[in-house]
Structures are given as structure tokens and as C-alpha cells.
Design goal:
Strands 3-5-6-8-10-11-12 form a seven-stranded parallel beta sheet. It has a three-stranded parallel beta sheet with strand order 1-2-4, covered by helices on one side. The two termini are 27 Å apart. It contains 15 helices and twelve strands. It is 48% helix and 10% strand. By secondary structure, the chain is of the alpha/beta class. α5 links the parallel β5 and β6. The chain is globular, with a radius of gyration of 22 Å. Bound molecules: beta-L-rhamnopyranose and manganese (II) ion (2 copies).
């Protein structure tokens, strides 16, 4: 890193002030878990092995269609974004991969990009395509759709872009392409609901045919926005049917914010696992829709219940089960680095809590139709404060016991504000 980086000395001194208290809390929690037959050391090792991808666009300040309020020191370009991603991983040790978005992250030398990332200890996860915006000098507009557009030449352009993304991803070491389209309609009657899906499937079949042998394609559904009457890939049912029609390399991606209110997301997850079609997640939280809020910030129990299904599946080891994890949030009022640190920790928390569910007792209660008894098993795990396990996992992996406090103590953002004079028209984070 050419500019300011959080030093080992600062990390050490920050950890030193918290180490004695952590040892005490860890020992107390280990004893409490041991009484339940849980090995805290094994749990800590599992947490250390857990990782979630950071989206490169997530380190920019987000915005709404009304405004964006960027703060000084936000990343100006891809290499600034990499620095911020490296800082997040350095402190929380939970985000070893990046998920890029094209053309937002376009650069002339992808081998060099991969090398710079590797220098920070970062690798690349799924590649995201973008056919929901027009780019300068683009021949055809996506105003009325992309992969499902009525005009064959618009579809061809969108297909070619996705195939380009695969080629870039191959250079970066990615193994998956995530396709989210904004296609849909705003008026009843505007679009033929059946033919729009037909066109999408035909386009996706061409993209699917371009996938390397060891790649997957993730279909991301979303019920509304920017189309407000109908969306072509509106829900998990459509997504599942499309993935089944396309073939084994096509799987469904669940963005937690892309469902109608009150939908039982953990059940959707269980269904997709059952059909071997759960490809991955975009984690966030929401009260109303999309990626408004940070993962675990309002509905931590729901997040836990999703992980509960994942661990239940992991224990059974179903075919084709290897979900990809990514955070997909819009950070409008926080420092994105702090939000991403906290969100990665919340995922690890839900993961650790799901790991300590007593699955034998749970299965027995379910077999006896003991409704409340069965409920108490996941509840007991969810109400266990696993924070000392998470902090110990970070410390042992070389990170910070208290990532956000350490980040604040470093004045990273202030240093970056000096190093990164604002440039006009940065597109970072307008999602
Ligand atoms: C969409 C969707 C996609 C993301 C874009 C920026 O709502 O969540 O995953 O790529 O936003
Ligand atoms: Mn998403
Ligand atoms: Mn979204």
C-alpha cells in the first residue's frame, strides 16, 4: 500500500488493552459451553475459517435516488477501493475475498489487479455484471430492459457484456458470475409477461453456454425496483425454474433484501437447498426493501435462522451445496468501512450461533411434536453471547479484538481524506 495503512504497532497496542478482559470472558464462555458439550476451541477454529466477500462498490458511500452524501476520503477508483477492502480484512479477518462489478471496476490490466489484491491477501469471488445502467458510448440503451429486451440487438449487447465479465473473471480467478437484471415493467400491459421471460431464458442460455467447466452462474431475483409493476426475475420460484431449465451450473442467489415483507426467507433457503439450487447470498438487512440496512442490524434472529438452515444442510452434506457469501448493502449514513466490519462480524455471530444449536435435542423435540421444546433449542443458541469467541478468532487470525474501535483510533479516514483529494463525478456506491 502506497499510502497510510494501519500499522502492526497500533494493532498490537489496541489489542493489548483488551486482551486480559477477553481472556477472562473467553474462559467463562468456554466453561459454559463445555457444560453443554460444546468445544469452544473447535468453534473458534470454525469462525476463523468463515469468510464473506466484500463488494468493491460497497466501500463507496451509498445513496438514494434523492441524494448521496459522500464523506472526505472515500475511494476514488478501484485501487483505493482495494485499500479499503484490505483494511476491513486486516481488522476483522472475515473478508478474504472481493466481488467486483463491471464495468464499474473496469481496468486495463486484470493480471496486475489480481496481483495487487493478492499482495493484500485478497482473492476474487463472484463477478457481477451490470446491464441496469447505460455506459458512455454504449450503442443500445437499457432503458426498456437488457437480457429480456424486445429488441434482439439490445439483448445481444447485454449477452456480450456478461460473456466479457466471465472472461475478466477468469483472469481474476473467479468461479462464478452473478446476474441481476433490472428488467421489468412499470405499467400493466407494458410487457408480455410470458414472452419477457422467454427472451430472458434464451439470453441466459447463451451466457450459460459460455461458462467455463468449473464455473457457476447465480440468478439473483428481486421483486421490485427499478421496475415497479413487474420484474422479470421477481422471486425465488421464477429463479428456481429458470435455474432448472438452464442446467446444473445455474443456481439461485438470495439477496435478503429482495423479498416481499414478511416472507419466510429461511424457508426459501431450505427449499433451494433441497433442489440443489442454492448458489449464494447477498447479505443485508431491511425493514422495507432492498439493501437499505446493514446485515443483522434489525432482524438478527432472521439472519441466525438462515444460518441455522445452512448448518443443518452442511451436516447432511447435500449435493451441489457450496453457497457463496457476499455483503450487498448501501451505506448511506455510515463510514462504509465501519458498516462492513460490523456486518462481517454479525455474519460470523449468526454462523457461530447456528453451530452451537443442539441438533440432536432439536431433532428429538421435532420428532415428538414438542413445538415449544423444539423452539427453545435454536433460541438457546441465539441468546448465547458468542462475542468472546468471535473476538478470539479475530485475534488469533492476526486481526483486532475490537475492529471498529481500532479503526477509529487509527484515524484511517482522516489520512485518506488527505491522500485522496475529491474527484468530480465518482460513481462509487450509487446503488
Ligand atoms: C441490485 C442487486 C445487485 C447489485 C445492484 C447494485 O439491487 O442487489 O446484486 O449488483 O443492486
Ligand atoms: Mn444484490
Ligand atoms: Mn439489491
Amino acid at each position: 500500500m502506497t499510502g497510510f495503512f494501519i500499522s502492526d504497532d497500533l494493532l498490537k497496542s489496541e489489542n493489548a488493552t483488551r486482551k486480559a478482559a477477553l481472556d477472562e470472558d473467553y474462559a467463562a464462555l468456554s466453561r459454559a459451553l463445555a457444560r453443554r458439550g460444546i468445544d469452544s476451541e473447535a468453534l473458534t477454529r470454525s469462525v476463523m475459517a468463515f469468510g464473506v466477500a466484500v463488494p468493491t462498490w460497497g466501500v463507496g458511500t451509498g445513496g438514494t435516488r434523492f441524494a448521496r452524501f459522500p464523506s472526505p476520503g472515500e475511494p476514488r477508483h478501484l485501487f483505493d477501493k482495494l485499500e479499503d477492502c484490505a483494511t476491513i480484512h486486516r481488522l476483522a479477518r472475515a473478508t478474504p475475498t472481493l466481488s467486483p462489478h463491471f464495468p464499474w471496476d473496469a481496468t486495463s490490466d486484470y493480471a496486475a489487479l489480481r496481483e495487487v489484491a493478492a499482495g493484500y491477501g485478497l482473492a476474487f469471488d463472484a463477478v457481477n455484471s451490470n446491464t441496469f445502467q447505460d455506459q458512455p458510448n454504449q450503442e443500445h440503451s437499457y432503458k426498456f430492459g437488457s437480457l429480456s429486451h424486445v429488441d434482439r440487438s439490445v439483448r445481444a449487447q447485454a449477452i456480450a457484456h456478461n460473456i466479457d465479465c466471465i472472461a475478466i473473471g477468469e483472469q481474476l480467478g473467479s468461479k462464478a458470475l452473478t446476474v441481476w437484471i433490472a428488467d421489468g415493467s412499470n405499467f400493466a400491459g407494458q410487457s408480455n409477461l410470458t414472452l419477457a421471460l422467454d427472451r430472458y431464458l434464451d439470453s441466459m442460455a447463451e451466457i450459460y453456454a459460455a461458462l467455463p467447466a468449473d464455473w457457476r452462474v447465480f440468478l439473483e431475483h428481486k421483486l421490485y425496483e427499478p421496475a415497479f409493476y413487474s420484474t422479470v426475475i421477481s422471486d425465488w420460484g421464477t429463479s428456481l425454474a429458470a435455474a432448472q431449465e438452464l442446467g446444473p451450473k445455474a443456481q439461485c442467489l438470495v439477496d435478503l433484501g429482495h423479498h416481499a415483507p414478511n416472507v419466510n426467507i429461511e424457508q426459501i433457503v431450505a427449499r433451494l437447498i433441497r433442489f440443489g439450487k442454492l448458489g449464494g447470498f447477498h447479505f443485508n438487512d431491511s425493514k422495507y426493501g432492498d439493501d437499505d440496512l446493514d446485515a443483522g442490524s434489525v432482524e438478527p434472529f432472521r439472519l441466525f435462522l438462515v444460518f441455522n438452515e445452512l448448518i443443518d444442510a452442511e451436516r447432511r452434506g447435500p449435493k451441489g451445496f457450496a453457497p457463496a457469501y457476499m455483503l450487498d448493502q448501501s451505506h448511506n449514513v455510515t463510514d462504509p468501512i465501519e458498516s462492513l466490519l460490523q456486518s462481517a462480524i454479525e455474519l460470523q455471530r449468526a454462523y457461530a450461533q447456528a453451530l452451537i444449536v443442539d441438533r440432536v435435542a432439536l431433532a428429538a423435540a421435532q420428532a415428538n411434536s414438542d413445538a415449544l421444546g423444539a423452539h427453545l433449542e435454536p433460541k438457546r443458541a441465539f441468546t448465547t453471547d458468542v462475542s468472546p469467541i468471535l473476538a478470539m478468532a479475530r485475534l488469533r487470525a492476526g486481526g483486532a479484538i475490537a475492529p471498529i474501535e481500532t479503526y477509529r483510533a487509527s484515524n484511517y479516514r482522516k489520512h485518506k481524506a488527505n491522500e485522496r483529494p475529491a474527484v468530480a463525478g465518482t460513481s462509487a456506491g450509487i446503488v
